[in-house]
Write a structure and sequence with these properties.
single chain; 118 residues; alpha+beta; 3-stranded antiparallel β-sheet; two-stranded antiparallel sheet; 2 helices; 14% helix
Length: 118
C-alpha cells in the first residue's frame, strides 16, 4: 500500500521538514497525533485532495499565489481539480522543479519583477 493511501490512517495529516543540502541538521517527518505543536507560527494546514484518476499523488487545494505578502492577480480556478480529475496541484518532494500553467507563470513573473530586491 502506498504512502498516500495510508495517510487516512494517521488522521489525514502529516508534516515534514527537508533541510537544505548545505545545512547539517536532520529533517523530520511526523504523522497524525504526533503533529502537536510541530508547526511554526503562521503555518497553516492544507488538506490532501484525493484524485481518483491519480490516487498515488499528493494533491492540495491551492487558491492562488503571493509575492511579498501580496496576492498575485489571476483567475481563482486556474489551480482547480475538476470533477473528472484533470488539473489540480500536485506536491512532489522528489521533484526539483516547479511547473505552472503558462498564465499563472506569467502573472507570478510579472508580480516578481515589480517587487524591489531585498
Amino acid at each position: 500500500m502506498s504512502f498516500v493511501n495510508q495517510i487516512p490512517e494517521t488522521r489525514g495529516a502529516f508534516s515534514y521538514c527537508l533541510p537544505s543540502y548545505s545545512i547539517l541538521s536532520p529533517g523530520w517527518l511526523r504523522f497524525g497525533r504526533d503533529l502537536g505543536g510541530a508547526f511554526p507560527v503562521g503555518a497553516t494546514l492544507a488538506p490532501l485532495v484525493y484524485n481518483l484518476r491519480a490516487p498515488n499523488f499528493y494533491y492540495v487545494g491551492l487558491s492562488g499565489l503571493g509575492v511579498g505578502g501580496a496576492r498575485v492577480p489571476m483567475f481563482e480556478d486556474i489551480f482547480r481539480l475538476t470533477e473528472s480529475g484533470y488539473g489540480g496541484v500536485i506536491i512532489d518532494t522528489g521533484t526539483m522543479v516547479t511547473t505552472l500553467p503558462t498564465v499563472a507563470y506569467k502573472a507570478l513573473k510579472d508580480a516578481s519583477s515589480l517587487k524591489p530586491a531585498e
